[in-house]
Design a protein that fits this description.
Largest sheet of chain B: 5 strands, mixed
Shape of chain B: globular
Largest interface: A-C, 81 and 82 residues
Distance between the termini of chain A: 42 Å
Strand content of chain B: 35-45%
Strand order of the largest sheet of chain B: 2-1-7-4-5
Oligomer: heterooctamer
CATH superfamily of chain A: Aldolase class I
Radius of gyration of chain A: 20 Å
Distance between the termini of chain B: 39 Å
Order of helices and strands of chain A: EEEHEEHEHEHEHEHEHH
Structural class of chain A: alpha/beta
Shape of chain A: globular
CATH architecture of chain A: Alpha-Beta Barrel
Structural class of chain B: mainly beta
Largest sheet of chain A: 3 strands, parallel
Number of helices of chain A: 8
Number of strands of chain A: 10
Chain lengths: 259, 66, 259, 66, 259, 259, 66, 66
């Protein structure tokens, strides 16, 4: 089974799993989880340097940037302007013009403000950014983001950090069918089967943070996710059997002894 | 003289270049991005851009996020 | 993350995936799927030799018995006597005293006749068989099979060959909590995530045939299942995050620029 | 003389040992199990067990199953 | 829409909802909930009279036996003998030879012991009882109970008192398709939609206790269940629309202004 | 159990069920289904009069406008301008300034274009319309519509006419928790339990067309929906029992005979 | 003399009919069923059946259940 | 002279009021809404508004919808 490579904006990624760098018990454990996950792209947040306390070691000391592509996000931004400003700073702090674009619309759900998101996407694309917007599972919003020049669309499976799994599989499937850019399920995954389901629906990749960082054993869960993504993708490509209401024997019905 | 550094008031004896400011703050220039009075300053311009009284400076870096 | 080995009746298996040998387009393709699956136990049926046509090549020519353990089944048997008779013949035809015990109660669902199943288990255990009974997701039936000496219990996830996935996860979980022998989900898996879900519920293994043999690309699906079983098992052991009704940010909420 | 072989009538000129029967049928003895008049015959006894008129013989092997 | 009457053992019931008498905050509230439910059959338990404390008022003082048919149960019995003995006492205490037969197999799940249940059914049917056995959602067990003379089969939707709703709809549907006696979903209902789903699957009736007695407002929930049972039954008879993966407009697509 | 009245823009409705007038086999059958449903608000489409064929009888001849409130929709409109123009015509054709506002974003899913929908809502509210916008299950879009002056928000449960039921219950629940205006689930209902589930999630009402008009027996299904809406609403108000993983007996555990 | 009543020891001065026993216990005969030494006693036989020393008596009625 | 009526060309001998047009078309004025050259015409103005050559007229009513 030969799969097409996972390409975003002309860049090929070896893994269809993209993971975060937040909420880990320690930077050291994060590094081991990253290693175990097989991911070659990680998201990071852009925040003010802590002036008063310089002791804290740098996140980047624990990311092997030779094999990991860094994707700055605009998490926590509630307006297009905030997100644009943060994206620009992220570009300077890093070495790429990629951004995981978040414009949050509500504190409790952290669902996106699609209007502002589309607007910010248009601005950043004009400035030469490779924009990967976090949106909800709305096929129309995804189409508009694509039309605005997004390099991929990243519909949520469930609220960020909720671990509820893919709440509306039908929408993810529809988004995949109509999108011309990669579809990456971002947020909501809680365990391995959730990631496999996302891939079986046709998602090109899955982005997750809390499911791994918040597990009792992040390294083991990272390994679990690596397998789930590969397994789910292969299952999607393998042509699964149809669902039937009744049974169909897997052993021959003739040739029984004594009949 | 005083500037606003990452949202907080900060005292300076005299104007400083961004390089000098980072040096004073013991911050590795290669790991941060700087916004000076709402304008982003490219890293290669850190030596020439000078921070003076009343300026607003934002110094950011990458932290863990999802 | 070190897992306990997968042991049935004192025998250690490397893989928690057990697969069938039926319904493949060809023996050759089956062999490649077996290889890809990583399984080290396969089920086979016991049937009359075709006297009139000796041309047909033997199934065993396509199974590497040096690494694959052969598990004869009693598929198609509708009474305890039939199943016992078939189990005995299987023991002679093969080299082991293991049997996947099936006593079917209904042609359309292929659901087990638990009464007859328990009776046959008792007889075969007395005769020194290692009995792995295919049953439904009934914790009471599973307990009785265990008490009758079954080496493992194999509750169904859904009707054989239906590909519907685990219909009653709660029952599988309950069976796992109360059983002292390995619990192997047998039948009903349709795609990789179904297998992962079974493992995440605590199943010790999964047995499947149609999901792989009936896929458009059995070799790719076998690979998918290998990953899904490993991923699901690791996720079960990793301590997944709790499900939440609302979001919780994965990036810091403080340190935002310009606030 | 006639036996019932796997449920079908089957003609024999004279009584045969199971080994001879398998040979006649071109069946590899190592791959099958045999039931003779409802009794399972261990493989090592194939040479000595003789099939005669009216006997019921079941010869089975492994086929693909789930 | 004319429905066939709900008939068990030749007796016609006006309501397809059967409810319990346990766990109510008070007998008075129970009576009002019964009234609101529209049910004309209620289950009761058979227990030792409290000798030391005769103060407690009798349950029957709060049941209008002129319109409510009393169905004694054998709840709490763990063997066929216990259940048979309790059924006989119930017959003497009451005025009918009907029994809701329970033989429990496990304390934590309260799932039935089907073997013992079938045995007890055979004995009681011989003694002239009208037997309504509580069983699990196993089509084979249901068929055997029917063959043993059960007047109806009562598969569980989920564990007693769990409120989880119908855990395995496919099994209930299959049981209904193959049974020749009424199928009553007994246990597991938590809210109105659960009852509606049971009826939509083809169940002839639903038996519940905790969902009503344990609700904050039992009288309102009893009313809710009355409507849900009627609505679910009608929906089952009405021929619902097929499920589609995509939309189909409900307003005309031609005749738009300005096109 | 006394419920708060169902009020939209100061108008009280007796029924929480709102139904359509499209796709019925005949106007006469529609009238009977309307009667059976108990609804007192129906949606209608605005279309060009058929000039060439004047024979066709008028829809309004079959709607008892003395008890039915007429809600014109803008179905089929793909831009804010089209929708605004159609809404204005609907106001002239009818006797009210209410409109069910639809701005469709995609032909295959008929999902809304939320940007255009919000824009059209602002315009029409300024013109004095009572706007009930059909949107998707996005809490942020619903909040913006509310802020734009919508008299209610009408999130979809599933694609129009799909009959898939509520695809994302969690979103409907969240929308209800945060909205200050009535929440009406519009589209996606296939059968009675779907409607009950919508109400149990806290929806103030449900709008449907195809589920009734497309059923084999629309009158019976309309009756089913009436009961489902009432039952679901009451269940929501009754305080359902919590879900438990295990059983809890509904009959006393003490007082067993012979213990 | 002593009987076992609903599993508990119970003292009687002298043998009593079931009717008398129920009366003594203030129990309405129409609402209960009685098992006397594992035999169920029809209600019409309550007057004639006598409970004596060592007898086992179970008196049951209906309580709330599901 | 010709107008565009509901998107189709439509011939008129001479200019007509909307009332007259509806009459000619056998349409009940109480059941429709009319847009004349993109302007919505209130029902009470149907008698006075006249349709002339090249005018665009949209006449709509309610039909079944969801």
């Amino acid at each position: 089974m030969s799969d097409t490579p996972f390409v975003i904006a002309g860049r090929i990624f070896q893994s269809r799993l993209i993971i975060g760098t937040g909420k880990y018990p320690s930077h050291a454990l994060m590094a081991r989880a990253h290693e175990a996950s097989g991911a070659d792209m990680v998201t990071v947040a852009v925040r003010r340097v802590n002036i008063s306390d310089r002791s804290r070691e740098s996140l980047l000391d624990y990311i092997d940037t030779s094999r990991m592509f860094i994707l700055p996000n605009t998490a926590g931004c509630y307006t297009a302007d905030e997100a644009i400003r943060t994206a620009r700073l992220g570009r300077e702090a890093g070495l790429s013009n990629w951004v995981k674009l978040e414009v949050i619309g509500d504190e409790r759900t952290l669902f996106p403000d699609n209007e502002a998101l589309i607007e910010a996407t248009q601005v950043l694309v004009r400035e030469g950014f490779v924009v990967l917007p976090y949106t909800n599972d709305d096929p129309i919003a995804c189409r508009k983001l694509q039309d605005a020049g997004a390099a991929a669309v990243m519909p949520l499976g469930a609220p960020i950090g909720s671990g509820l799994g893919i709440q509306n599989p039908n929408n993810i499937r529809i988004i995949r069918e109509s999108a011309r850019v990669p579809v990456i399920v971002d947020a909501g995954v809680g365990t391995a089967s959730d990631a496999a389901i996302a891939m079986e629906l046709g998602a090109d990749g899955v982005l997750m943070n809390t499911a791994i960082a918040g597990a009792e054993d992040p390294v083991a869960m990272a390994t679990a996710m690596r397998h789930a993504i590969i397994g789910g993708r292969l299952a999607y490509l393998s042509g699964r059997i149809p669902r039937k209401m009744y049974a169909s024997a897997s052993s021959p019905v003739e040739g029984m002894v004594g009949r | 003289m005083q500037i606003t550094l990452n949202g907080e008031p900060y005292e300076l004896e005299q104007p400083l270049s961004l390089v000098a400011l980072l040096d004073k703050l013991d911050i590795d220039a290669r790991r941060v991005a700087i916004e000076h009075n709402l304008t982003i300053i490219k890293r290669h311009r850190f030596p020439e851009v000078v921070v003076g009284d009343g300026d607003q400076v934002e110094i950011v870096n990458f932290v863990g996020g999802g």
